[in-house]
Amino acid sequence: MRSEAEMMQLFLDIANADHRILAVYMNGSRTNPNVERDIFQDYDIIFVVTKTQPFILESREPERSWISQFGNILYMQYPDEHPDFPNDEENFYGWLMQFDDGNRVDLHVESVSHAREHICDDKLCRILLDKEKILPPIPEATDEDYHIQKPSRAQFLACANEFWWCSNNLAKGLWRKEMPYVQDMANFVVRKQLEKMLSWKVGIKTGFRVSVGKSAKYLYKWLEEEEYQNYLSTYFGGNIEEAWEAVFLMCRQFSSTAGYVAEKLGYSYNIQEEKAAGDFLKTVRMLPKDAEEIL
User: Fold this and answer.
1) Rounded mean pLDDT for each run of 10 residues along the chain, 295 residues in total
2) Which of 12, 49, 109, 238 is the most buried (most CB within 10 A)?
3) Which of 58, 64, 90, 91 is nearest to 76 (CA)?
4) Domains and CATH numbers, the chain
């Protein structure tokens, strides 16, 4: 597997050898000092170029001549070729490449005007090369834009309301044994509120100076071991009874976390809403399959 030093030198060598490439910058996890390095980190590289179209055309040739110089490609994706999403090829175009040595590169070419306008959009950015000083000065890379934000009272209450209201959908889905619907509702709606509440707890403990990462994947760094293991136990498979147990565990964890956040931030928590939703869940769980009424 090519080392980081080898890959970085490769990017610079390619850029320096091509007069159409005016600058190179990088963003993503490799510019974040708070992310631990590992072998799966990809390289998010942007080449600022005179025109994007020549690079796009050269990558579409049977030999893929331009992108082939980055290494032997196992497989790749052309995100800007997707039929369901708009693109702006003249200003920004990318190739996502997995190489046979294990390295992955998310490479983009970008017009000068687009780079000047958008390079500061992501503070996790580092300029690697600027041949003609076309890019504006940027501050040192930081993940501060991704730090947990202190919730307002309204945001706190909305999170709790969304969690408890949508638990209703979990109840009916489990009673109907519609597991695909239950999984979607649990993981993409209800769990997101639990993630948010747990993140706010982490924020309180750290002074809102850290990020829990995409999908709250770094929660384990700040939660107690038992609390984090309880959170992992809220994930469930295709068994209905297992799902019911996980849902009630999710509810208990949300309740205790919301209580903590409310107390620390001086917010009120609608315990009546929680009790009503919890009682509804318990009722539906015991409801026979031939029931003609819910309550």
Assistant:
1) 96 97 95 88 97 90 81 93 88 96 97 94 92 92 89 98 97 97 97 98 96 93 96 96 97 98 97 96 93 84
2) 109
3) 64
4) 4-143 (3.30.460.10), 147-285 (1.20.120.330)
